[in-house]
Amino acid sequence: MEILQLPVQLLEERIEQELEKNPVLEMLETEPDEDAPESLNEESPATPFEHEEEIQVGESKDHVEDFQIAEEFASNYVDTINEQPTRSQNWIEDAVDRHHDAMANVPTPTQTLQDYLAGQLAWFDISKELREMTVRLISNLDSNGYLPSSLGDILGMNATDEEKELAKQALTLIRQLDPPGVGARNLRECLLLQLKPDISFYDILRAVISDHLDDLKHNKLPLISKKTGFSIPMIQEAMIELRRLNPKPGAMFSAKLAPSVIPDVIVDVDDEGGYHVHVDDGRVPRLHINNYYRDLLSQRETTKEAREYIKQKVGSAQWLIDSIMQRKATLTKVAQAIIDHQTEFLENGLPATIKPLKMQQIADKVGVHVTTISRAVDDKWIQTPQGIFPLKRFFSGSVAASDGEEDVAQDAVRIKLREIVDQEDKTKPLNDEDLVKALDAAGIKVARRTVVKYRQAMNIPNSRERRVWNE
After folding, report:
1. Cβ pair 289, 26 in contact under 8 A
2. How would residue 118 be classed by pLDDT, with cut points 50, 70 and 90?
3. Hey, what domains does the chain have and what are their CATH numbers?
4. Sign of the torsion angle spanned by Cα atoms 190, 192, 196, 201
5. Which listed residue, 4, 138, 370, 405, has the most CB atoms within 10 A of its CB?
């Protein structure tokens, strides 16, 4: 389970760790002899354990005892044994390539909002005290550029009047810095700080932002028009200018980079159009147990302590080799079962064609426990003719049809609901009951409560808030 859950990048790291600490484990640099056993097991001929008790894989020892055994073993064979695994030139070159790949994927450190703001203070001729107070307030800004704490909370109960005045000056200075809107306490202040007298519809925007943000959120344009005296068309034009303002001026400095993705499974298409999967283990080194340590176990002059030490290390190595092989077999079976179920999506690439699928279905088909399926697909990616996707993407819940017929995939409901809302007449938007009827006409029969649930989950406003007002 431990090895099965690892994606290919972490599996590489796990193998590298074992190679560093286990001297009996080595990488195969050439294709193995077909007649030679790849690992130690019951079918391997001439096993060095035929006169010894069975090795218990994963058997643990007291750390102090293990250290003493290793130390004594090393001292007895100091002239012949190097605990560090032998590295071939090919292995070294591969390691260098992996290191370069890793360095290329390391994101460049990005400048923080605090660093960016503090750097601008060099533009101002200010006192040392004001500079220090300004930096102090800058450090209290949140990721959006807001100052969530009051000056009193930041300064503390024992702040002097001089410190309070200095803090006010510092906050005024911060609000002059770039990006516009930083240092605000809330959305209203943030937007007002970005308004300049020369901006289009300045008077309308100032009135709406100051007193009618909640009304604007609920699309109550007639009410705003009545209270402000501005016409609905003028308010609508002002809203275009409002959307150019940044409600989160600091967010651009905390944008997360998308991690690089290496697929664990690849889908191939045969000549007859069938889909077959294989685990991409080209990055995973082939492992075997060093023959030198096999020979030591069969030699009578090998001490009991050395024999026990080697057994433990061989058991650990054998466990890793077997686990990697089992990981490949399990992942292949699971991925093939998933692909067999989602063939329609592979053929056309439409998200709506992803069929309802639960992990229990794949577990029943493959003949394993559902937790095995969960670990097999966790953080794994699959390369298909339609692109690279996380394996979990192909598991889709279902929505019970209102008429008791076949369940509908959740993705199909979401996609069709979005399409209907995007194409509706915005002067007469569809209410939830109308959306149920529109989905029914498209062949998707769901209850009204289901529509409400998905509309809210997709952040689709209700019909009143989606309405475009005409005077």
Report:
1. yes
2. very high
3. 398-466 (1.10.10.60)
4. positive
5. 138
